[in-house]
Write a structure and sequence with these properties.
Layout lengths: L4 E5 L6 H14 L7 E5 L5 H7 L5 E5 L16 H6 L4 E4 L2 H6 L4 H13 L3 E6 L3 H5 L3 H13 L10 E5 L13 H19 L1 H6 L1 E5 L4 H8 L6 E4 L6 H10 L1
Parallel strand pairs: 1-2, 1-8, 2-3, 3-4, 4-5, 5-6, 6-7, 7-8
Bound molecules: phosphoenolpyruvate (PEP).
Amino acid sequence: MRHKIIAGNWKMHKNAEQTEDLLNDLIDKLPPDVQVEIIVAPTFVNLASAVDHLEFTNIDVAAQNMHQAESGAFTGEISAEMLKSIGVNTVILGHSERRAYFHENDALLASKVNSALEHELRVIFCFGEELKDRQAKQHFSIVENQLHDGLFHLDAKDWGNIVLAYEPVWAIGTGETATPEQAQEMHAFIRETIRSKYGSDVAEGVTILYGGSVKPDNAKEIFSKPDVDGGLIGGAALNAADFAAIVSAV
Ligand code: PEP
């Protein structure tokens, strides 16, 4: 069901000791009793220890990626079943860095989504246009296609395990944020696109996060928009005080 989420994508940062330190810092600094789901996504090698470390807290753990196959000769890869086996229940798929540097396209992502859902992993599905798309005024059609090709093969019932993260590529790690109005405009478009395919129950039930240079000083304004249900946070998730301030801004 639709609710507020703040998720931190740690990318390829923090070794084992640093992961533990940041988790301790988060436990200290995160506000108690918030009405928002808090998720952190450390690297693969630190997932199991993070799950253990956070067992009695209100912080969930997500993976940053997974392979679509059940198992097999895929050197260096991790399956949905393996994530489940260590207590991970959420996976981020389709991050723009996976799309750009590892050539993950919508067809591949659709098969990853299927595998995740088959294993009862919730998916945080990332998508968003590049700067050239926005400059060419094609951002709505790009986003619509990403939704169509990555997710619109799903049944309505599957959407209970899908969280969307709209992340304009030009705003990720650049310090340039979409304005609150740009975020709202796109989130409303995304919800409308889902409504026209699946109807109002699915459209109103889906949580849509914004990602792209969210910081403590711009979070409140972005999160005040009616179709923005929280954020996927990169850089600012690596600092416990900043992440806690962003959680408090929802
Ligand atoms: C991200 O990587 O998903 C992200 C939004 O990064 P940043 O907050 O650093 O722009």
